[in-house]
Amino acid sequence: MPGNRDIRRRIRSIRNTAQITRAMQMVAAAKMRRAQQSALSGRPYAKLMNRVIAEVSTHTGDLTHPFLEPGSSDKRCVIIISTDKGLCGALNANLFREVTKFDTQNTLFITAGKKASQFIARTKRQLIAEFYYKDSPQFSEARAISRFAQNLFLEGKVVRIDILFNNFVSTIVQKPLVVEFLPVKKIEGVSTDVAGTELGIELQKSTYEFLFEPSAEKVLGAMLPHYLNFKVYQILLEAKASEHSARMIAMKNATDNATELIKELTIKYNKVRQSAITTELLEISTAQMAME
Q1: Superfamily (CATH) of domain 4-24+249-284
Q2: What region, left, alpha or beta, does residue 90 occupy, with left being phi > 0 and alpha being psi -120 to 50 degrees?
Q3: Do you find a cis peptide bond into 183, omega within 30 degrees of 0?
Q4: Does the N terminus or the C terminus of the chain have fewer Cβ atoms within 10 A?
Q5: Matching fold, domains 4-24+249-284 and 27-248
Q6: pLDDT value of residue 60
Q7: How far apart, in whole angstroms, are the C-alpha atoms of residue 177 and residue 99?
Q8: 191 near 168, Cβ under 8 Å?
Q9: Predicted confidence (pLDDT) per residue in 190-206, tens digit
Q10: Cα angle value 154/160/166 (rounded, 5°)
């Protein structure tokens, strides 16, 4: 049975750990608020852009564009958006569980985030490019990822490209999500259900007539690259909001567990201390009775 000194040492160690996790929780909470605001503020623009492009696509007829046609290769590509750091619960583990569902031989991977790069290298999958993005994702970082993927698709090296990331649902819910990137089949939002989007309902009820200059085909062709760039940017914002939310929850759980453990050890320490005092009193009483 551990003595008082061992228990005090454990309590001191756990209390120091709790102070660290509490500080990390506060930092993550501050970053989480900024990341959530950035992700939520980008959704209206993404929805408006989706509506405009979808409206243009209804006036193009049988449009042929390289981004709309599947590639001729037998390989596919997956862009994985992960975190650079750990301590965010099962966020990355759930993401990598989805990675294992892809065919190892016919799937190429592009990673954004150190954890994804390490996982792909550790599992000996085909990594063709790795990117990094800041705590506050920049549009230029998303554009670099998007352009690399677009060139890969235009060169005919892959038949399709998907993006795998942690979709931000709420502070306590982040779900791995796979969205189609290329070829462009449906104009849809990042965080919406394809079957029942407000976008589709709104387009069906639209009675407006639009004039496009020089033509709807050229307008759509010019907007598609920007649409793809912003789609990656919005996904980076969603992934970063998921990361900070998961880290804040993980640090809060760690702090709460440390607090509970300190309470249990304090009770155990008091019991051991009380037992020692009782033993000493018994020894004193026994010695006094022996002297009489």
Answers
A1: ATP synthase, gamma subunit, helix hairpin domain (1.10.287.80)
A2: alpha
A3: yes
A4: C
A5: no
A6: 67
A7: 11
A8: yes
A9: 444 333 344 444 444 45
A10: 120
pLDDT tens profile 223-272: 888 989 999 999 999 999 999 999 999 999 999 999 999 999 998 888 88
Alpha-carbon distances of 73 from 17, 154, 175, rounded to whole Å: 52, 11, 30
* Third-level CATH fold of 27-248: Pyruvate Kinase; Chain: A, domain 1 (3.40.1380)
Contact 163, 235 (CB under 8 A): yes
Q: Residue-wise over 165-197: b if at least 16 C-beta within 10 A, else e?
A: bbbbeebeebebbebebbbbeebbbbbbeeeeb
| Residue 148 buriedness (CB in 10 A; 0-12 / 13-18 / 19+) | middle
Structure tokens, 287: 């010695």
Domain segments of the chain: what residues? 4-24+249-284, 27-248
pTM of the model: 0.82
